[in-house]
Amino acid sequence: MSDLSIVRAHQFDDIEQQHDASWIGMWVFLGTEVMFFGGMFTGYTLYRNAYPQAFASASNHLDIWLGTINTAVLICSSFTMALAVRSAQLGERKPIINFLLLTILLGAVFLGIKFTEYYFKFEEHLVPGAAFNYEASLARPAEIFFSFYFAMTGMHALHMIIGIGLLTVLIIKARRGRFSAVYHTPVELVGLYWHFVDIVWIFLFPLLYLVGRHL
Amino acid sequence: MSSGHVLSVKLYAVIFGSLIALTLTTTGVAFMDLGRGLNAVIALAIAVLKALLVILYFMHARYSSRLTWVFAGAGFFWLMILIGGTMDDFLTRNWFGTLG
User: Fold this and answer.
1) A131 has pLDDT over 70
2) CATH at residue A174
3) Which of A9, A42, A47, A197 is deepest in the core (most CB within 10 A)?
4) Does B100 touch chain A (CB under 8 A)?
5) Residue range of the domain that includes A103
6) What are phi and psi of A133, to 5 degrees?
């Protein structure tokens, strides 16, 4: 068990305690992330309640099928991430790298579709600002909807980009043989982060793409 | 603790299949007009169910310590206060005809 002492920081009694501390620490961080996105979700709820017709109208300008496909892509990436963590738990080096690469690929597909949607919105003059163009009676509140749309999906996309960066670091570490069945905490914690970002999208998808279709 | 629990590929695949099925269901339901705000209720109920599947299995919360549950639950508990506290103000303004 010599490799235990290599990876255990001196302030911990044993590897189990060190692992539990990291695990709890990650959940604390995710709690702050819930609050971060929660502010935007609260703002959305408030304004949707104030302008239900405009929000429904604006929501119908989003492509429900691109939204559905992207939701499926993100769920696939969570599945491959879960399998990467499983391979790490079993100490299988090659599958960890392959599953992490697949996760990055699916994350990139999600971002590609997302930015294509952004492009369409620019073309259609639906980006808030001087060029925003909408039927006059609903224009102001519809602009609020698209402000929420870009702020929320934009922050979500930023989290995805950070996640892809973290996955890249994991792949480099895995290639150097830094993870084993005994020590693979970073893989688990990045997994938690990736699944959390998936959950944010699970709520963004119905709120932005679906609930406007029928009030 | 979580690192000791290796879940089977089959279980992950079942959760994955359920999440995809729920995604198709929520998109399908969006095309039906259920009226009385029921569309939003069902869309959000499905989202909560999907989030629970991800948290419990993909994030291993079901196999984690009670302490993890407290920390994981705290974020969502405070989110409920944030949204609940804000909405109970805005939704109850003008109930008695006073200026909001």
Assistant:
1) yes
2) 1.20.120.80
3) A197
4) no
5) 59-210
6) -135, 120
